[in-house]
Amino acid sequence: MIDYLTNIDTDLFLFLNGLHVDWLDPVMTFISGKVTWAPLYIVLLYLVIKKYKKQSILIIIGIILLIVCSDQVSSSIFKPLFERPRPCHNEAIKDLVYLPNGHCGGAYGFISSHACNTFALATFLTLILKRYYRKIAWVLFIWATLVAYSRIYMGVHYPGDVIVGAAIGVIIGIVIGKIVDKINKATQK
After folding, report:
1. Do the beta carbons of residue 17 and residue 87 sit within 8 Å?
2. Which pLDDT belongs to residue 39?
3. Which of 37, 88, 95, 96 has the most Cβ atoms closer than 10 angstroms to its Cβ?
4. Buried b vs exposed e over 39-58: b needs ≥16 C-beta within 10 Å?
5. How many whole angstroms separate alpha carbon 149 and alpha carbon 119?
6. How confident is the model at residue 189 (pLDDT cuts 50, 70, 90)?
7. For the segment 78-103, what is each residue's pLDDT rounded down to a tens digit?
C-alpha cells in the first residue's frame, strides 16, 4: 500500500512539476520566498491589533507559538522521523525534476514546512478574525494554497508532502486557536 501511494505521489509530482512555463518561474520563486509575504503579515497584524486592542498581545503570542510549533513539528519531528528525500534528491527521478532556481533544499521533504506554517497561520487567523472579516478565510486559504503549490512547482516537495503538511498545519492552527480562545475568555471574566 505504501509503495502504491508513493508511486501515485511521484507520478503526480512529475506531472505537476512538468507543467512549468518560463514566465511562471519568477512568479513561483517569488511566491515561495520567505520574506515575500511580509506586507501581508503586516496587514494581518494591523487587523488583529485594530479589532482586539489590548487582547491582541495574547493573539500575537499565539501566532508566535503557532509558528514555532508548526515549524518544529515539520522540521524537527516529521523530516528526521520519515527521512523521505525531496524529489530533487531522489536518485530515481532527480534528472526529471525541474528546479526553476536550481536550489533543491535540505535532504528531506516530508512534510512541507511551508505548507504546514501557512495553513497553520491561515487556520488560526481565520478562527480569530472571521467574526470581523467574513471573507478572510478565502484570502488566507488561497494564499496558503499558492505557497503550498509553489513548493511542488519549485521541485522541492511531492504533493503528499504538501497535503500532509497542510493537514498538520490546520490541526495546529485549530489547537492553538482554541487555547488562545480559552485563555482570552478566562481573562475576560
Report:
1. yes
2. 92
3. 88
4. eeeeebeebbeeebeebbeb
5. 12
6. low
7. 999 999 999 999 999 989 999 998 88
pTM over 0.90: yes
Grid cell in block for residue 6: 508513493
State the angle between helix axes of 159-188 and 2-17 in degrees (0 to 180), rounded to the nearest 10.
100
Can you name the residues that pair with 85 across neighbouring β-strands? 108
Sign of CA dihedral 122, 126, 160, 117: positive
**CA distance linking residue 154 with residue 165, whole number of Å:** 16
State the Cα–Cα distance between residues 62 and 106, nearest whole angstrom: 28
Distance CA 125, CA 142 (A): 13
Between helix 38-52 and helix 113-129 the angle, nearest 10°, is 30
The span from the CA of 164 to the CA of 142, in Å, is: 17
